[in-house]
């Protein structure tokens, strides 16, 4: 098992990067790895409940789906 730290500095202005960060964190957690997420700069908006509700990347992936999974698995978020 490996440990991963995902750092997100992009906010609502860049839904593709934010969604992709959460997606990669989900994949790592699914594979049994230790996952932590650090929110900096504009990424701190995702620490507010409900901010990701309407965030969708150009591929149609929704940030909320990944965030809900990460919260359910008790992945720590640092701000």
SSE blueprint:
Layout lengths: L2 E6 L6 H16 L3 E6 L23 H10 L4 E2 L1
Parallel strand pairs: 1-2, 2-3
Helix pairs in contact: 1-2
Task: Summarize the structure in words.
- The protein has one domain (3-72).
- It has a three-stranded parallel beta sheet, with helices on one face.
- The chain has helices at residues 15-30, 63-72; strands at 3-8, 34-39, 77-78.
- The chain is built from two helices and three strands; from the N terminus they run βαβαβ.
- With 79 residues, it is an alpha/beta fold.
- β1 (3-8), α1 (15-30) and β2 (34-39) form a beta-alpha-beta unit.
Coarse morphology = globular
Total DSSP helices: 2
Q: How far from one another are the termini? A: 25 Å
What profile does the largest beta sheet have?
3 strands, parallel
Q: Give the strand order of the largest sheet, numbering strands 1, 2, ... along the chain.
A: 1-2-3
Q: Mean of residue pLDDT?
A: 95
Which sequence of SSEs, written as H and E, runs from N to C? EHEHE
Please tell me how large the radius of gyration is: 11 Å
Q: What structural class do you assign from the helix and strand content?
A: alpha/beta
Quickly count the domains: 1
Q: Share of helix among residues?
A: 25-40%
Low-confidence stretches: none
Count of DSSP E strands? 3
Structure keywords:
79 residues; alpha/beta; 3-stranded parallel β-sheet; 2 helices; 3 strands; 18% strand
């Amino acid at each position: 098992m490996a440990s991963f730290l995902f750092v997100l500095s992009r906010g609502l202005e860049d839904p593709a990067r934010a969604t992709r960060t959460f997606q990669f964190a989900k994949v790592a957690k699914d594979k049994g790895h230790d996952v932590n997420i650090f929110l900096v700069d504009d990424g701190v908006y995702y620490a507010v409940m409900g901010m990701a509700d309407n965030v969708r990347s150009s591929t149609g992936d929704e940030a909320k789906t990944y965030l809900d999974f990460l919260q359910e698995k008790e992945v720590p978020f640092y701000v």
